[in-house]
Amino acid sequence: MIKASIIGITGYTGEELLKILSKHNQVEIVALYGRAQSQARKIGDIYPHFASTNLIIEPLNIEKIVKDSDIVFLALPHAASFEIVPQLLEKGVKVIDLSADFRIKNHQVYEDWYKVEHKAKKYLPQAVYGLSELNREKIKTAALIANPGCYPTTVLLGCAPAIENNLADFKEIIIDAKSGISGAGRKAAQTYFETEHPNCRPYKIAGTHRHIPEIEQEISALAKEEIKITFTPQIIPIERGMLSAVYLKLKDRVSTADIINKYKAFYDGKPFVKVLEAGVLPSVKDVADTNFCEISVKVDERTNKLIVFSAVDNLVKGASGQAVQNMNIIFGLDETLGLI
Predict the structure, then answer these.
(1) Catalytic residue among 150, 159, 200, 293
(2) pLDDT for residue 44
(3) What is the DSSP letter of 165?
(4) Angle 321-330/12-22 helices, nearest 10 degrees?
(5) Cβ 288 vs Cβ 241: under 8 Å
(6) What local confidence, expressed as pLDDT, does residue 237 receive?
(7) CA distances (Å), 31 to each of 11, 145, 276, in order?
(8) 46-62 tens-digit pLDDT
(9) Which H/E stretch holds residue 146?
(10) What percent of the chain has pLDDT over 70?
(11) Is the CB of residue 72 less than 8 Å from the CB of residue 96?
(12) Which of 3, 199, 222, 291 could tie 339 with a disulfide, CB 3.0–4.6 Å?
C-alpha cells in the first residue's frame, strides 16, 4: 500500500484529494494536515460527509510526515510550499505540489507574475511538469511533480496534437476560457455565491492572469519556439467545470475529419482524453466529477481557423484527479486506478 499524506486539507483541492484517495484500493491515507493549526481536529468537523471515518487533521509535523509517508500531496496556496518541499525531498519523500510554486522553470518569471520571492529555486530543475498525457515518461521517475493548473490543462491538451502535426501558426493563439467559481478557491467562491451569483464576468484580462506564463512556457516547449498567447478567462455561475475555446490559424487547408483523426492518433492509449466525433461538442456537465478531458475540433472553412474546445472538471482533471493520476504513474500502477 502507498502511504499518502495531504497537507492543506481544508481547501477545495484538499477535499477532492481526500474523496479520491479514500476510494483508492492501493492507498492508505496516513495523515491529514492543515496549514497553521495548533490542535488536532476531527475531519468530520469540517466535512460532515467524512464524519464516519477516524481521520483527524493534525498540526503540521514534518518529522512525522517523513516517517509515515511515501508520497505527500501539497494542496496549499502559492508560496506556502517553499519551506516544506525541500524538507520532504531531502528525506526521500515524493511530492506532488498542486500550487504554482514549481511549475514555472524560470524563477524570475515566477517572481514577476506572483509578486513573491521564490525561496526554493534550487529545486526547480528537478520539478517535472505533471501533465500526465504529455510527460508520462518523466513523471515515472520524478521525485517532485508540479501539478498543472486547470486552465493550462485544458489549453495544452487542446493544442498539443495541433502542435505535433504542425497544423497551425502558433504565434496567433486566442484562448477564450470559462471556469466555475471553485477555480478561485473556497473563500472567493463563498463570496461569489453570497454577493453576486448567478453572474458571468471576465476577470484578469489583457495578459494579467497568472496562468499565462505557465501556458506560454509549455506551448513554447512543445512548439520549440517562443509563443505568446491572448488569454481571456471568465467566471460562469457554476461551482465546478471549465471549458476553453482555442482559436488557431491553420497553415494549410485541411478538413475537420483529418484533424479529428490526428487528434485521436495522438491520444491513443491515453485513457482520460476523449476526442469527440465531428459535430459533437464538449460540455462541463459531461466531465463534472470525473478525471476526463473532452476535446472537440472544428475547422471554420470561411476563415481557415481551427477551433478547439476542451472541457474538464477544474477540481479533478484540472487539479486533484490529475495529481492522483500522476501518483499512479510514479508507482507503476494502472493510470486509471481510483479515478474510474
Answers:
(1) 150
(2) 84
(3) T
(4) 50
(5) yes
(6) 87
(7) 16, 20, 40
(8) 888 887 788 889 888 89
(9) strand 144-146
(10) 97
(11) yes
(12) 291
Residues sharing a CB contact under 8 Å with residue 115, sequence separation 6 or more, in sequence order? none
Say how far apart CA 106 and CA 102 lie, in whole Å: 9
CA angle 306, 157, 168 (to 5 degrees): 30
Gap between the Cα atoms of 296 and 309, Å rounded: 5
Run of H or E residues at 7: strand 2-7
Spell out where 186-283 has E strands. 201-202, 229-235, 242-250, 273-275
Cα separation, 310 vs 306, whole angstroms: 13
Residues forming beta bridges with residue 227, ordered by sequence position: none
CA dihedral (55, 60, 62, 64) positive or negative: negative
Q: Is 293 a catalytic residue?
A: no
C-alpha cell at 246: 482555442
pLDDT digits (tens, 9 = 90+) for 14-40: 999 999 999 999 999 999 998 665 578
DSSP string, 108-119: HHHHHHH-S--T
For residue 56, the cross-strand partners are 42
Cα–Cα–Cα angle for 92, 97, 99, rounded to 5 degrees = 155
